[in-house]
Every structure is written in structure tokens, then in C-alpha cells.
């Protein structure tokens, strides 16, 4: 129900007039001398209840007449009737996130959503303004066009690999209708599979906009997905060295093992099985140095997009390492790593990819990675300070602080094996690492203690070489590291820090990727080559897969794009969950195609009711006349006989 | 036989009250009404007065032709009427309600006040009674009885009755019960009591007093004078109705009560009739817009039953 001219509803206040007249009526009127007051009092006494009821009925009838007249003037109409609607500014939020690609029954969820969206567009009128907002492609601007163009865009919409943030999409939609409605009735259509992870936090209403929501009632199909692929326990394999790939499988098909396969550069190299919630450790063959892409996959299920997880990595030859100064535990560890093929020892710092400087001895400007180990005694700190200054390192060491042992800060969620091994290690002596007043860009803390003090810091020195400063000497007096299992992985990762910029990356769909200055093209997963500008940020990585960054024919790096694993969790919001997630929003939910057709375009211009209101007024007036006439019939009788009533003398007692 | 040729147009008893009022004073009007009424009786089904002959008197227009002594006509060529002994035995008391409510007329330009109608009717009754040789007395009352005249016979007594009635003014409240009991105390011989009132009185005490009169052996005839405007509420919307006797005020929405009021009036009249009839009290509703012949005829019926 709605009204075309709501201001006329104010006329309804005139309904108070009959009420006021009714209340004042009994105290007004002329004063008439009338001797037969006895009969009048008797008549009033006998009919008081009936008269009051009649007066109340008349009052209600008259008030109803006034209210109906006001309603008729306001031109009411039934929203539910008819297809016409007020000019509407409508944003269709179409969820095309990865989860909508799931097949349910015989149809993709996205196809159902597109059907509803097309029904909406088919009902749009020329006076409407329409936007299409694809929640699964948040990097795209909203599309506004005529109904036909919008219908084509809807038909061409495909599921992306991205996750949808329904809250953000609704906020965008509300902003769009607020800015572009231009007097039209605002409305938002939310077409989504209502994946619970798409609304991770409650979003209070920001505008009074009706939101028509498609509410799927079926349970989502069972799904399994590759949640992570970890190569070499977190360390990229070295050229010519075999390694392992850990493929983690998640899903709601617990106990139902699935086949797991590992592919490198398009060729399957290993296979195994794993149940959802478990991982399959597959052998990773030795590869030559270079950029390597691949994926781990499981058998297809209802949602295909998350059955394959891509990775990109850089296979490099073992680094050459030199050690200066006295560090026996480091010496032994390097020897072990060399025997394992993880590095190659050289005697000259100038010939080494990585140089470890115990007490800062031999530290100089250069491009190679330098790792500074502090001296065992604080007495040697001034000498270290001079060497740091000479090499152009801005950070400084302070004497050890506090007493007792300190633990390393936990690295939660890190797949790196180092994080677990460091948790067991303790630090007895840690020098303070003092940052310069003007930190160098790119400075970072690699490892920190549990109390927040930095333990390993990355910075640069003169010549541009990366420099790592450790807070403790790697001996058993200062830390338990030399005698723990963490020693070798720690050195392995410290040596891996020699890369100036990561040539490979793993990002979510749509995330912009910084390109090296020399980059001129990107090789897309489908084999096409897209020209890019070097040194810019590129946002074309939207489809899952491995993207190779090229400079001519040389591969500079690679980017693996994978959907957010949370997008694979298909559990849906129910009506209560939706209301709790969107408090204050004017939600109209429906789960059927017919219900959708009835719910869309809330400001429906149905058949106007003013004629019915006027007809009701006429009926009420007739009823009012009849009720009033039942009381005043004698008045008309008197008037009709010319005021000549004829009471006659009757001998009532004759013969009685 | 001039009276036998009297046309209906000449009969004042059939005239409307406002036409009667235009004829002149009470004496003239009453005489014309009575004469007209008596003339009409020639066509009336009513029969004579009594049985025991007393004397002759000259025929007068209106006398029943059945009582003309044809033998005397044969001897003297004059009309004589035979009179009977019992006719002179009746003592009649005319009781006129002169309370304030009797001054009311719903249409003062067209309808006379109820008191005027009552006085005129009483004068006619007195003339009829006196002509029949009865004794007539008259008393007015409101809250109490006022000075009246004692019952006496003779033609000239009629003028005394008129002089007692003519100056009556309607004023004050009504206490018919007390007035009737007062009168009952004064009446030493049984007779006919004729009450002219609008009966806007306390019904219980009035009925009790009327029954008391009957208990004392009196015949009672009640003329309930009713203005047509009392049968129907006036054609106004809302009004505050004021009782002229008590000053009491009652706000009323006329449209709401019109039908109920009519029913209340009918119920009240029916109640008077229903309660008086078993007591042998004649009850006549006389509208003040009706010809007086109706009321006189009612009296005549009563008189005939008395013999």
C-alpha cells in the first residue's frame, strides 16, 4: 500500500472535527420552554443506552467519511497489484564470487542468481536507473546502463576466483543510490548464495534503502579444496636438489579421501591421497635454476574453482658463503649445510653471495648479503660500532638488557618450519638493536623476542647490499640456538634473505602486483601475453593461475593467484543470520521465483484505490443518513404533513 | 324548527379552536358552541335524559325533538319540551388546572393555550349542565385550589361560572392530588366531577385522589388536554428544554429522541387510560386543535349513563 500524494493525508486531521462537535453538541442549542418535560425525561431515560450507541455510530461514520476523503485525496494504491512501479534507482548486487560457481542440483548457483537479476531488469521501466555491481569482482566499477545493456552484462557475468564482501558491496550500493537516485525510489537487490564468510562482521544500516534479498533455502553441496601447498617446508628448493611438497586438503567430506596430484609447469610429477583436514606430502623433483610454476589439485567436485591451488617459486643454485671472525657453532652449521648441498663455502668475502661477519669483522660496503653477528663480550661493541659506521649501516648495538632467558616471539599461522623450532629456543644475551633516527626504507624486523625486542633486523648498507643484524652471538653462552634443531633452518633462512626483491609472489585475485622496473609484459595463465609498464602496479591478476612477469624473453618473476580458502566454505546464512549480520537494514527476503517477482520494485504503482474510497464514502453517507433518519423520522413526518399532526380526543374509558 | 335547518357551517362546536377564539368572548363562544352542539344532536344516535316527567318548558334550538310534547303543540301551537325530575338532581363540579404549563401553546398564532381551551370547554359544560337543570360549581387549582363557586342551578348561575373562569391565569406548579382531595372534602353530596388538565402532574398522587373521589361516590370525567406540540418534539436539532413550572432544564438532541418521545407520550396516555378505566373514571384526551364537539360528545355519553 502506498500513496501518490501523501501530503493530503494531513486532511485526515479533520476527522477531529466531528469528534469535537460530538463532545460539544450536548451543551448547545436554543432554550425552549416545553411543559411536557416529564415525557422527555422518560424518553431519555428509556433510550439513553440506545441513543449513546447511535451517537457513537454516527460519530464513527462521520470520522470514517472524513478519513476516507483524506485517503482518497492522497490517491492510495496497492503496491502488490500490477507491474507498474515508481521510478526507481536500483542497484543489483550480483554475487559472482568463486562460491557461486558451485553446482547445486543441475544448475550453477550463479545461473540461478543471474535468472533473478534478468527478471529484475525485464521489469525495469524506462524511468528507472539501474546499476550492476558484481560482488565477486570488487575491483570493477559499478556498471550503469539501459536495461538491455545491463541484461547482456548479466548474461556474460561469470564466477571469479575472488571472495565477496557483501557488507562492502551493500555499502557501495547504498552510496550509489544515494548519489544517483535523483528523486527516484531507492532499492537494492542482493543476489547471493549468502555464504557465511561473505559477511564476517555485522554491518549496521547506513541508509534507509529497501534491500530485496534472494535467500537460498537449500543446503550447500559438499565441498573439498586444496587449502595450501607448501614447498620444501617453506624454503624454495635449490637447483638440482629434491624437495617435498605438502598439499593440505580441507572440506566437509571428512573421512572421504581424495586423490591429490602435483603438477610442475603443466606436467603431473607426483600423486597421492588425503582426506579433508589432512595433508599429502608429495616428492618434489630436482629442478634447474629458474622460475617454476605449478599447482596441486584434487578430484573435481561441486565447486571446481578451489580444487586446484597454484604456486610459483624461484629455483636458485646454492649460495656461496664466507665467514669472517670467530664463530665455531656457525662454522659447524655451515659445514653441515654445505655437505647437504644447501650452500658452497668460499674463502673470500668478495666472492661470496653471503658473508657472515662475527663481531662485524670484515664488514664493508657491497652488494652481497652481509650477516652481522655481535661479539660475545660487550667490550668489543665499540669496534663493532666503528665497522657498522664504516659500512654505512645506520643501526647500532646497545649493551645487553635485563637478565634471564628470553623466548622468541611466536609466529602464529606461519607455515615455515623455522617458527616451530624457534619456539623451543631461548636467548640468554641479547644486545639492544637501536634504530636510526631516520630509518632507511625497507628496514624491517625479521625475528623478535617475546618481549618485543628485535632480534634480527634487515637493513641496507652502502652499496645497496642487504644487511642482517642479529642481537645475539650464535654461541651456547648467549643462546640455546647452536645446540637446538633451529640452528640449521635459521641459517638457511638467513641465507635466503640475499634476494633484494622477491621475484615470486602469491596473491589473491584482483590484488595489484608491483612489477620490476625491467618488466614489459605478463604471460597470463591462458598463454596470452599482456603488455605492462615496468615499475608500475599491475591489477590484471584476477583469474586463478600462475602469471609470469617478462622482460623480453626473460622471466623476471612469477605470481600465483589463488582464491581465498575461506571462499571454499560454502555454509550459508539463514534468515536470522542475515538479519544479525545486517542490523537496521530494511530487508525483504524471498526464496522463490514468484516471491522475487512480487518483492522487487517495492514502490509498486498498483491499481489506485481512490475510486473505492469515494464509493465507500458514499456508502457510509447513506448509512449515516439511515442511522440519523432512524432517530429523526418524526421530524420528516411532521414536515411532510404541513406541521399538522392530528391527535384526536378519544374516549378511552368508554364501556371499559 | 329553525334549529333543525342549521347547517354544519353554522355549528360552532365543529369549528377549530382558533376559529372559535375569533368569534368573541367566552360567553358568546360557549353559547354558540353549545347551541351548535345541541342542534347536531338531532342527528345524533344518543337518546333522551330520563323518564319521570316534571314540567314543560319552551323549546329551544338544540333540544331533542323526541322530548317535544306534541299534544301541547296541538293545543297551543307552540313547542314545549317535557322535563324530567331526575335532571335537576345532578351536581357537577368543574375542576380547571391553572398551573403554568396550561399557558403553553406550541403555535401561539394558531393554537390557543391549553388553559383557554379548558376554560372554554368548562363554560360549555356548565351551560349544558345548567340547561339540563343540573347544579354546577367551578374550582381552579394549581399548587392548591383557588376560590371557586359552589354548585347551584339556574340559568343565571352560568354567568357566575363564567365570571369565575374568565379571570383565571396560568401560574405556578401543579399539585393535582392535593387539589382533588381538597375538593373531595368540600363536596357534601355525590355528584359529577369533571377535571380539565394537561395531567403534567404526579401521576401516582393524582390517581390516588381520583380513586378517592370515586370512593366517595362521585362520578369522574377527566379531560386530558393535549397540545399537538406535546405529541411530537419540535423540529429543531439540539435544544435545552425548560419546564415552565419548575425551571428545570434538559439538554436534548431532538433527532435522537423523537421516536422515543412519541412512544413515551403514547405510553403515558395509555397508562392513564389503563389505570383510570378500572375505577370507572372516564378519560378523554382532548387535543387543543380539535373541535369542542368531540369533548362535549364524550360528556354527553357520560351524562347519559348517569341517567
List the helices and strands and how they pair.
The complex is a heterodimer of chains A (656) and B (307).
Chain A (H helix, E strand, L loop, with lengths): L1 E2 L12 H10 L5 E3 L3 H37 L2 E2 L10 E7 L8 E2 L2 E2 H15 L5 E6 L8 E2 L2 H10 L9 H15 L4 E7 L18 E5 L9 E8 L11 E9 L6 E7 L2 E8 L4 E6 L5 E9 L9 E8 L4 E5 L3 H12 L4 E2 L8 E5 L10 E5 L7 H11 L4 E3 L7 E2 L9 H8 L1 E2 L4 E3 L9 E5 L5 E7 L5 E5 L16 H10 L7 E4 L5 E2 L6 E3 L5 E3 L5 E2 L6 E7 L2 E8 L13 H7 L4 E5 L2 H7 L10 H31 L16
Parallel strand pairs in A: 4-7, 4-9, 9-10, 10-36, 18-19, 18-20, 20-21, 21-28, 29-35
Antiparallel strand pairs in A: 1-3, 5-6, 7-8, 11-12, 12-15, 13-14, 13-16, 16-17, 22-25, 23-24, 26-27, 27-28, 30-33, 31-32, 31-34, 34-35
Helix pairs in contact in A: 1-2, 2-12, 3-4, 6-9
Chain B lengths: L16 H5 L4 H15 L12 E6 L11 H7 L3 E5 L6 E7 L16 H18 L3 E7 L7 E4 L4 H9 L10 H11 L5 E6 L5 H13 L3 E8 L1 H4 L6 E5 L6 E5 H23 L5 E6 L4 H15 L1
Parallel strand pairs in B: 3-4, 3-6, 6-7, 7-10
Antiparallel strand pairs in B: 1-2, 4-5, 8-9
Care to describe what's here?
- The complex is a heterodimer of chains A (656) and B (307).
- Chain A has 656 residues and is of the alpha/beta class.
- Chain A is built from twelve helices and 36 strands.
- A seven-stranded mixed beta sheet of chain A has the order 19-18-20-21-28-27-26, covered by helices on one side. A six-stranded mixed beta sheet of chain A has the order 8-7-4-9-10-36, sandwiched between helices. A five-stranded mixed beta sheet of chain A has the order 29-35-34-31-32, with no helix packed on it.
- The longest helix of chain A is centred in the N-terminal third of the chain and has 37 residues, at 37-73.
- Chain A is elongated, with a radius of gyration of 41 Å.
- Chain B is 39% helix and 19% strand.
- In chain B, the strands form three sheets. A six-stranded mixed beta sheet of chain B has the order 5-4-3-6-7-10, with helices on both faces. In chain B, strands 1-2 form a two-stranded antiparallel sheet. Chain B has a two-stranded antiparallel ribbon with strand order 8-9.
- Chain B has 307 residues and is of the alpha/beta class.
- In chain B, a hairpin with a 7-residue loop joins strand 4 and strand 5 (149-152).
- In chain B, helix 2 (26-40) packs across helix 4 (114-131), helix 4 (114-131) runs antiparallel to helix 5 and helix 6 runs parallel beside helix 7 (203-215).
- Chain B contains ten helices and ten strands.
- The interface between A and B is large, with 49 and 64 residues.
- Strand 2 of chain A pairs parallel with strand 8 of chain B, so a sheet runs across the interface.
